[in-house]
């Protein structure tokens, strides 16, 4: 097994699925940095562990399923689900995430991630959990393919042209299982690619989209025209030099909170 793939196997099932922080000490660098939306958690002990522990406390026995993993030997990316029981809501839930990783040759050094907390909230409120996608059959023993600058450039240009929010329905967040589509719509959008990596025809990215909110979320009715920004992390399959399958997760839940908070501050 490739060393980075083996490290990620331990990350997923030796640590994340078991909540064993002693394993985190072994596989994460002391200055491990975790990016999620606009937030940066720097330092395994002082920042990352407290944030992870809050999640584990809120969802005792939290489970983890890997749907896709790929690596070029130097970097890797993953599309996954977390699922469990909420003590606060007395409800079951399953939600998607996407993440990119760097390592220092021995331990993980950085993670860029988004998780679909908007879809999670819907399930907690309705008490109806979403089905969990099938797991990858053998994620850790797949081929280690070299990075492709051409594919990274293709995906970056697609993102910068606004392709993500115009992608086929079913590409973002919980769209394949939700009872109704709740996709953010922006006007005058500008996209900044924050990170990108590839292995063969698969490309993972994190991007920030800025613009004017133009609809899509029921909770933001009446706030159209507000300045907004949205983070997204995902995986794109490039097929015949064109954009193929897209699986991405956005921080629409946190974007909603940002817009509502700004509106409250303006009204004071």
Automatic annotation (TrEMBL):
Pfam families the record matches: SnoaL_2
Every SnoaL-like domain range: 17-110
InterPro entries (alphabetical): NTF2-like_dom_sf (IPR032710), SnoaL-like (IPR037401)
Identification of the protein by name: SnoaL-like domain-containing protein
Organism for this UniProt entry: Sphingobium indicum BiD32
Signal peptide (residue range): none
């Amino acid at each position: 097994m490739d060393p980075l793939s083996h490290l990620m196997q331990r990350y997923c099932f030796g640590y994340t699925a078991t909540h064993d922080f002693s394993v985190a000490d072994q596989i994460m660098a002391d200055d491990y940095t975790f990016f999620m939306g606009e937030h940066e958690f720097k330092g395994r002990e002082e920042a990352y562990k407290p944030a992870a522990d809050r999640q584990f406390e809120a969802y005792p026995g939290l489970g983890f399923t890997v749907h896709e993993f790929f690596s070029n030997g130097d970097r890797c990316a993953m599309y996954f689900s977390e699922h469990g029981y909420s003590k606060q809501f007395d409800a079951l839930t399953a939600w998607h995430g996407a993440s990119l990783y760097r390592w220092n040759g021995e331990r993980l050094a950085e993670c860029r991630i988004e998780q679909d907390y908007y879809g999670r909230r819907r399930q907690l409120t309705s008490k109806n959990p979403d089905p969990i996608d099938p797991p990858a059959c053998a994620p850790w023993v797949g081929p280690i393919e070299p990075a492709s600058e051409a594919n990274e450039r293709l995906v970056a240009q697609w993102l910068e042209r606004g392709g993500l929010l115009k992608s086929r329905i079913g590409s973002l967040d919980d769209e394949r299982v939700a009872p109704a589509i709740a996709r953010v719509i922006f006007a005058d959008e500008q996209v900044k690619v924050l990170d990108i990596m590839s292995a063969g025809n698969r490309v993972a990215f994190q991007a920030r989209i800025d613009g004017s909110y133009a609809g899509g979320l029921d909770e933001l009715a009446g706030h159209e025209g507000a300045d907004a920004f949205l983070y997204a992390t995902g995986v794109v399959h490039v097929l015949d030099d064109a954009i193929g399958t897209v699986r991405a997760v956005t921080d629409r839940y946190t974007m909603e909170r940002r817009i509502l908070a700004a509106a409250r501050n303006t009204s004071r």
